[in-house]
Amino acid sequence: MEILLTCPICGKTHTISVDFEEYCSWAFDGELAQNAFPTMSATDREKLISGMCEDCQNDIFGGEEDEDDFE
User: Fold this and answer.
1) Mean pLDDT of residues grouped by 10 in the chain (71 residues)?
2) Which sign, positive or negative, has the C-alpha torsion 50, 58, 6, 38?
3) Which residues pair with residue 22 across a beta bridge?
């Protein structure tokens, strides 16, 4: 399913594709995002959690990080 998000920092809109069952696990059952979306990148998980676009994440968190840094 597609989720439309608006970045709270810059106001840009973006969409993210998620599996419906994974989304329900996270949104309604309280599963942690990293567990509910095991194949999703950390950047995309943050988009879903906070709504922040990739550019604003890079500005705030200091650029692209290796995926292993988040585990």
Assistant:
1) 96 96 96 96 94 94 60 48
2) negative
3) none
